[in-house]
Amino acid sequence: MTLAAAEADRRIANVLQVGTIVSVDPAGPSVAVNLGDITIPAAAVGMMRAGGLSLWWMPAIGEQVLIACPGGDMARAIVVCGIFAGNAPSDDAAVPLFELAGGEIHFNGTLIVSGDVIAGGISLQNHIHGGVTGGAATTEGPQ
């Protein structure tokens, strides 16, 4: 096999790899990924969406991931997605952060919102209560 053919084979083999996250740099945002005999020190983290609505989160240490290396160049590695391996990484909570089911979102944890929350047409920040009286009385529902 010629040197050029060997290099082509190596690059083709590197296009898609399965590895394990060994460190996370949220400022990067990048991660180090162990591929068994080598570690990629700063792989970019892909996003589900990168337009007007950006949706992404950093992988966890111990998570198994699929990486893509354009042209087989591991210096350009991108984490494409996580791979379910039946084991939860050590720094993940036992309860999922959120679940989508039947048109409902069930959120487990603290939700911090920088703007208003509007439910059923009622603003959390600007609603008013009727029937307010002094003392131990309660108010009517928000309007």
Automatic annotation (TrEMBL):
<dbReference type="Pfam" id="PF18946">
    <property type="entry name" value="Apex"/>
</dbReference>
<dbReference type="InterPro" id="IPR044033">
    <property type="entry name" value="GpV-like_apex"/>
</dbReference>
<protein>
    <submittedName>
        <fullName>Phage baseplate assembly protein V</fullName>
    </submittedName>
</protein>
<feature type="domain" description="Gp5/Type VI secretion system Vgr protein OB-fold">
    <location>
        <begin position="18"/>
        <end position="84"/>
    </location>
</feature>
<dbReference type="InterPro" id="IPR037026">
    <property type="entry name" value="Vgr_OB-fold_dom_sf"/>
</dbReference>
<dbReference type="InterPro" id="IPR013046">
    <property type="entry name" value="GpV/Gp45"/>
</dbReference>
<dbReference type="InterPro" id="IPR006531">
    <property type="entry name" value="Gp5/Vgr_OB"/>
</dbReference>
<dbReference type="Pfam" id="PF04717">
    <property type="entry name" value="Phage_base_V"/>
</dbReference>
